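Quiz preparation item.
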């Protein structure tokens, strides 16, 4: 084969590889809030991240909460202080998440999707494996911002912390750091290389996060405090808000005792505040 043909084949192969790498990449953003009060500055950052055009609208999904009307009214009021875009809400049931095509299409075409707090398990019981799940991912791929607070933050991970502890009747205590104690299930999967925990610093959830890291050493575990958010665009993450974000990754040499006590070495621990940045794995 002539050198010219070899060079042309190499160029075509490089172009094909670049096309495959970019195909299917998400164009949207994630705005993941650790719960608690949301300041005006945080809400302004959310609206700016969504980059709302006059023709765009916002959808609120309250399926995690037991007080949907109150949650919808509160977040809608905050958003309307920073934008004039229409806001609608859909409190889907499991059946509606597959059968109400008009609602599903509205979610798919929204520019900003906001998931309220409450119980992440309740939200995923409605959404998991439905057309609504697919519509939310399609919206994200096409450039929408998906945001959530508290339970709405927990659902962002593919591996979702449920809040339960194996072998314990009470949830959320995690008085020890041990393997096989953090109950997880399948979340929305917007983040595949990281696991999210929320209300992190104020509720001292370090034991839970370190236990999750021991169970999933290939993942980055991210603890977001109240009044604080991470903004995810591709692999790039920036921090905004009043408190801090804890990130643990790279755990090696994990050992487990006969009582499930875990030891490990060389974990990377980072602490970030407003305006700082890091990369996802």
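Solution:
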């Amino acid at each position: 084969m002539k050198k010219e043909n070899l060079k042309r084949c190499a160029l075509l192969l490089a172009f094909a590889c670049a096309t495959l790498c970019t195909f299917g990449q998400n164009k949207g953003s994630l705005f993941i809030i650790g719960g608690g009060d949301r300041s005006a500055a945080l809400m302004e950052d959310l609206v700016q991240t969504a980059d709302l055009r006059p023709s765009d609208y916002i959808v609120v999904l309250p399926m995690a909460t037991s007080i949907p009307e109150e949650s919808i009214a509160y977040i809608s009021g905050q958003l309307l202080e920073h934008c004039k875009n229409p806001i609608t809400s859909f409190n889907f049931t499991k059946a509606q998440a597959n059968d109400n095509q008009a609602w599903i299409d509205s979610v798919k075409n929204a520019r900003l999707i906001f998931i309220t707090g409450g119980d992440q398990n309740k939200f995923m019981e409605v959404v998991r494996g439905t057309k609504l799940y697919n519509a939310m991912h399609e919206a994200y791929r096409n450039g929408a911002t998906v945001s959530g607070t508290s339970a709405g933050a927990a659902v962002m991970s593919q591996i979702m912390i449920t809040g339960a502890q194996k072998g314990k009747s009470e949830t959320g205590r995690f008085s020890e750091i041990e393997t096989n104690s953090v109950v997880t299930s399948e979340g929305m999967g917007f983040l595949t290389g990281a696991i999210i925990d929320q209300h992190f610093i104020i509720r001292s959830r370090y034991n839970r996060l370190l236990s999750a890291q021991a169970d999933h050493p290939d993942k980055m575990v991210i603890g977001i405090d109240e009044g604080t958010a991470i903004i995810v665009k591709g692999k790039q993450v920036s921090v905004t808000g009043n408190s801090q974000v804890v990130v643990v990754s790279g755990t090696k040499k994990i050992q487990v005792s006969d009582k499930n006590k875990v030891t490990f070495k060389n974990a990377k621990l980072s602490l970030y505040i407003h305006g700082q940045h890091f990369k996802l794995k």
